[in-house]
Write a structure and sequence with these properties.
This protein is an all-alpha fold. It has a two-stranded antiparallel ribbon with strand order 1-2. The radius of gyration is 19 Å and the shape is globular.
């Protein structure tokens, strides 16, 4: 939709919103009352972030992609600052909990959490597959998509809202685990091509597999201690991100 190789699921600030909600739950002690408050507040803040970003970016029923992107970056930076502010006011114990959660982990997650996630994720995948052909046409540009009879505004907004909500609920459940949504789809695209009918399912399975492998590495590398899973994904993701930048730069020069 953004036609930008550097785009990832948190590009309009939803991941930062979800992370901030989880930090609020930990900082104010809601997490000590019941563990459900962390993902619950995380999802609520992700949803609020999405609503705010769209409200600012939409005028007369039309949403500008550039305005949406810039608004998302601004809101994301603001929420990250709010998160840092709460961390700075925390005592040592709370600070440790917040930092560990922000790095992302799967500790304590069980089949009950899977039951919460499975319905929205499966419904979103079905919806994305329904729009797979439209996404292929979007690669040609919005003007071409409009000429081929696609309702660009409605399709774009639907896809972004659903993707953002799924990102929000995932971040709310596990913390902000970076780079999974950035590097996996690009790697899959290099292998099987850009056809979204196959790319969407392969990316979902590839992302899940990458996360499981990263979790396994985080638990086994320095046993009995454990590395936060976000550190492992960043270790693999950052070099690939640099590779994407260099590749994009080379193509621009060509």
């Amino acid at each position: 939709v953004f036609r930008n190789p550097m785009a990832d699921p948190g590009i309009i600030g939803v991941s930062s919103g979800g992370a901030f909600g989880g930090v609020i739950a930990i900082y104010f002690g809601f997490a000590a009352i019941h563990a459900i408050f962390v993902p619950l507040l995380g999802f609520v803040m992700a949803l609020i972030t999405l609503i705010v970003v769209y409200a600012i970016s939409t005028s007369h029923g039309k949403t500008s992609m550039m305005t949406l992107l810039l608004t998302g970056i601004a809101i994301s930076s603001f929420l990250s600052s709010c998160t840092s502010l709460l961390i700075s006011f925390s005592n040592a114990g709370v600070m440790q909990q917040i930092v560990q959660w922000l790095m992302g982990n799967l500790n304590g997650r069980d089949w009950g959490d899977v039951k919460i996630l499975v319905v929205p994720i499966l419904l979103s995948i079905i919806l994305f597959l329904y729009y797979a052909n439209d996404l292929d046409i979007f690669l040609l540009g919005e003007e071409q998509a409009q000429n081929m009879g696609i309702s660009v505004q409605r399709t774009r907004n639907t896809l972004l809202i659903v993707a953002s909500l799924v990102t929000g609920i995932s971040v709310a459940m596990t913390g902000a685990i970076g780079f999974v949504g950035l590097i996996v789809p690009h790697m899959i695209r290099m292998i099987i091509g850009p056809t979204h009918r196959f790319l969407l399912l392969a990316s979902a399975l590839g992302g899940a597999s990458f996360l499981i492998i990263a979790d396994l590495i985080s638990r086994l590398v320095i046993r009995p201690a454990e590395i936060q899973i976000g550190i492992v994904t960043a270790f693999f993701g950052a070099p690939f991100f640099i590779y994407l930048i260099l590749k994009h730069k080379k193509q621009g020069e060509a």
